[in-house]
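Limitations

Structures in this collection are predictions, not experimental determinations, and the ligand pose is part of the prediction. Treat each record accordingly. The example that follows, with beta-D-ribofuranose as the small molecule, is included so readers can see exactly what is and is not provided: the inputs are given verbatim, and the output is the predicted complex.
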Amino acid sequence: TIKIIMDTDPGIDDAAALTMAINDPQIDLALVTSVAGNVTVDKTTKNAQKIVRFFNADVPVAAGAQQPLIKEFEDAARIHGESGMPGYDFPEDLPKPLDMTAVEALHKYIMESDENITLVPTGSYTNIALLFSEYPEVKTKIDRIVAMGGSLGMGNMTSAAEFNVFTDPDAAKIMYQSGVPIVMIGLDITMKALLTPESLTKLEHMNEAGKMLHDIISNDGDKSEAGSAMHDVNTIFYLLHPEAITTKDMWIDVITDGPAIGETVGDIRGAYHDGKTNAKVAVDIDAAAFNKWFLEEVSQIKD
Ligand code: BDR
Ligand code: CA
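Predicted complex:
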């Protein structure tokens, strides 16, 4: 099994990623930490708890950063709705979040773990930047970071910037300079592996988890005729099926001001960083395999 910690801002696609991480037997989800992003952190924390509670999973949740390190906070409620996870009535009797901050919980769970951890951030990287600044010793116990965010091509917030990196570019810069191996799961593949309308229809009557995902994904404010981007779910797909995703080693720099703020610049030619690399960047994906896997994963969940 792969032991992971998810740092997340649910969020429709975050909720789907949590669903896979909680239910796939090959993944051991040790901790969930929340961050402000799609909606405010009080809501993303609640939404993470709602998913944990929905599956009666024994996974602790710790609340994280309310705002980015420097930049002003802007949510994405226009895409993910006011609650962040609209369209389904989740149980209201939620477990309590841990009595410590996300940074404290990350430190504790990483240092106390017997095995090394794979960190999976699917929101902005504020908690991770704070963790690395405060407790640099955790780096030796993190195998790799498989992060949704960034783009070599077009952004989805500005022409240059993807939402998670745009939300806290300073944190992204710290993460990319941390020295921990990073897999960048960006828009270059997540906009390619859309969950098709046919797949969405199949989810509805599959089981209760399928119905829940169908109902929230149907409310995706960003969907097109071709389907819905399941951005964050691609991180879990990569963990389980790296063969379906092509990556390229390169150096990623993050722009922290000006018109390209939040852009992830890949040194594709190895010209600027002398051939040195700090990330594996996902550049291609088998979209049909992603859809097939998504449906299989959900179909295996017992009511
Ligand atoms: C990212 O932004 C968020 O809205 C999604 O949850 C995903 O993490 C995509 O740009
Ligand atoms: Ca997210």
